[in-house]
Amino acid sequence: MSIGLPAGMRLVHKGRALTLLGSSGWTLDIVDEEGAPLLLPIGPAGTLVPPDLDWLLTENRAGHVHDADEPRALLGGAKGQLLGLDREACAARDPKSLWRHEWAMAAISEGVSRSEPAMREFIGRDPAPAPGERPQWRSLVRWIAALRRDPHRRVSNLVTTAGRERGASQLPPRINAIVHRMAAHYWSEAGDPCKSDAASRVIEEWDKLAAAGATDIGAEPPSFECVRNRINALQNRRSFAARNGDFAAEQMYGAVGEPVGAKHVLERVTLDGVVFKHACVYSDDWKLPAARMKGVFAMDWLSSFAFEGPVFTGPFRPEVTERALLGLMTPPRLTEEQLAAETQRALCFGIPSQLHPDNEKALLPPSMVPGLVNIVSYVELPEAYHSDAKAKHERLHRFLHAAVSRLPGRILGPGPGRDPRYDPLADAEITRAQFSFMIQEARHAWNERPKKWLGGRSPMQVLLEGLATRRSRGMPTEEIERHLCRTVNVVLTTNGVEFDNLRYRWNERAVGKALDANLRREPFAKRLKGTGRVELTARVWDSDVDYIDLYDPERREYHRLYSTDPDYSAGLTRWEHHEYQRMLRAGKGGGTKPADRLRLRSRLLKAAETALPKQAFRARSATVALLEQEEMREAAGAFGRSAAYDEMLAAAIPTEPSGGLREDEPRAPPQTASARRAHADDDVDASDAASPPLPTDPDYPVADRGAGIEEGDAEGRPVSIWDDDRMDEED
Fold first, then answer.
1. Residue 279 class from Cβ within 10 Å (0-12 exposed, 13-18 middle, 19+ buried)?
2. Residue 318 has what pLDDT?
């Protein structure tokens, strides 16, 4: 019997000394001190029979029988204790025990010989007694022998005893209690500052016990890894809060990870940015390592389709987010050849119902959210102090990284996979344009490759199937661009509006109308002598600082005001403007006149090209981004929109940005509890009658893009109308 019960073993049963002489199968031969055999009454008649192994193990677990030499030891060892487990407990301890039992019972029931040919012939039969792999014939012989020793043929005979049970420790009980106590102390408010201190306390306790002559503490003290693993095993929300506070526990364990699922395409779309790991050279003509590229992409949550997004240099900024949103909400810009070859790609666009952006404020400033809510139905802002885990979007980023991982010039951090002699800047040879093209091709491969979580379909197939049953919503590109703005407070005078070191005064008729209509709203303490002064709100765009939309609350319309320095501000992004201003403050020289500012811009660009090779690699990113923006403006001179683009846009469901012809009601982003209570207590009808809505409300009537603008000059800019004779006639 192979469960650790040797012949001659001395036992004690309820104070009676016994001796195990041997066994015959499952029956035990036990005698007392006088040599009389131990017999047990069974059945109604009380027939006396010798004890079996089940009786011995049951009495041992109940504490009635124990080893005379080791009273605390369990009889039969680990194998004997497993015999008391039922079928469910055996499956939980060793899932393959049921598989072994089915094979062995099938061989026993058929009376298969234990010879090798017979066993191999039985194992090769179809159908197999149990699903899955087929066992080796020697293993099956051992399983049959183990079951034949047990008259009950129990599964517990085939449960493996390798390893230890979950939660059981290999440490001596006394030392295990010390380790657990020090680990629990670490997670208390007055715990040790680091895990090595807790390990040192454990070793100190072990040394004291060893000096006192304790014999049940093991030969060596617990290692640091042992204490560290026990501390990590005790970490949960409650222990983390006890050590670090409730606020830190909420940050660590708050339920903010994956957003809710989606039932149809374009119901929920995520937006995130990625920084690539390769150093790219400036161009084919200038093999200078310029910067690392970045990208911003939107992804449909149901289909995992990645929409067109920009690949650029420089920091994350609002204008690149606007380009990613346009790639999501408008048809992709395809040539006639691309449109003829890939017609389906032109259908992959639409306005989502919910937008889930990243928590990086450089991507989507909070001031852009009100205008974005007028386009989509709902914008889910990320929770503060939490990271939003968008697993599908991060999987896309890993796919893009893997697609270009073999390219030269890959920048790796310190680690075992990096060769310290490798210089990625010296090995860089891929230009910015080539790298951007490769990333876009990798995005197309992602969209067209079948995915397991989509049932073997590709993201493009799922998106097109969803759009075939549920048409996407569409909006003119001009309307989308107009609402991707920020609302700011400005001061209007007879000299126009000055914002961000730029003056907007063109369209003087609108300036005069706004001053005449709103001057009475200004308090006397804020009025100026000799000129008008009114505090109003305006819409500004980070993608173009050449114009702003001034809101007139009395007339309830917007007036477009253009910059007085068009040669400098035309097509200039706000980030570029801030970079030029930073160079001015750094002592680059310049002036405040339009001509001087234009000369400064040209001179700074030339200086940037000259100084680029002398700059450190990390410092080149902003300079390359400035030069890249100039290249884009030059290349966009002949850029147009085909008739197919307008046809694709007209095929979508027309959507009004103000919410007039929309089934989905635009909702503001989540607010604080006090703001929600204040909004619930207000009478909506009364508040609307008492004061006009905010400039970001969807019910605002928006004037035409050319509202208040007279016919312009040959370049399309408004001309001065102060000397117009019609002014006298209207007066």
1. buried
2. 87
Return contacts of 241-246, CB within 8 angstroms, 24+ apart: 242/187, 242/188, 242/189, 243/186, 243/187, 243/188, 243/189, 243/191
Distance CA 401, CA 600 (A): 39
pLDDT value of position 212: 92
pTM > 0.70: yes or no? no
Q: What does the pLDDT look like over 276-298, one tens digit per residue?
A: 988 888 777 777 788 888 999 99
Burial degree of 278 (CB within 10 A; 0-12, 13-18, 19+): buried
- CA neighbours within 13 Å on the CB side: how many for 653? 16
Rounded alpha-carbon distances, angstroms, from residue 580 to 312, 593, 597: 19, 15, 9
Q: Which residues lie closer than 8 Å to 211 by C-beta, 6 or more apart?
A: none
Tokens 């951090």 -> residue: 413
Beta strands in 36-103 (DSSP E): 40-42, 47-49, 65-67
DSSP 401-458: HHHTTTSS-B---SSTT--TT--HHHH---BHHHHHHHHHHHHHHHHHS-BGGGTTB-
Structure confidence at residue 107 (pLDDT): 92
Q: Give the tokens for residue 368.
A: 């852009």
Within 8 A by CB and 6+ apart from 353, the residues are 266, 267, 268, 376, 377, 378, 664
Contacts of 604 (CB under 8 A, 6+ apart): 580, 583, 588
- What local confidence, expressed as pLDDT, does residue 234 receive? 92
**Would you report the helix, strand and coil content of the chain in percent, each value rounded to 5?**
45, 15, 40
CB 430 within 8 A of CB 409: yes
Write the single-letter amino acid at 163: G
Asked if 393 and 272 touch (Cβ cutoff 8 Å), the reply is yes
Hunting for tokens 């040919």 — which residue is that? Answer: 117
Split the chain (731 residues) into runs of 10 and give each run's mean pLDDT.
Answer: 72 87 82 86 82 84 82 73 80 87 91 91 89 90 88 85 73 91 92 90 93 89 92 92 89 64 87 90 78 91 92 87 90 74 81 86 81 84 59 89 88 69 83 89 92 90 90 83 85 88 83 82 69 85 87 86 84 81 63 54 58 60 67 51 61 65 56 47 38 40 35 37 37 37
What pLDDT shows up at residue 623?
65
Interior CA angle at 488 toward 482 and 491, to 5°?
120
Distance separating alpha carbons of residues 328 and 484, to the nearest angstrom: 13
What angle, rounded to 10 degrees, do the helices at 96-110 and 137-149 form? 80
Reduced 3-state DSSP string for 330-390: CCCCCCHHHHHHCCHHHHCCCECCEEEECCCCCCCCHHHHHHHHCCCCEECCCCCCCCCCC
Are 502 and 570 in contact by the 8 Å Cβ rule? The answer is no
Note the pLDDT of residue 345. Answer: 78
Question: Helices (H), strands (E): how many in the chain?
Answer: 28, 19
Q: Are 278 and 409 in contact (CB under 8 A)?
A: yes
DSSP classification of residue 306: B
Handedness of CA 686, 688, 692, 696 (dihedral sign): positive
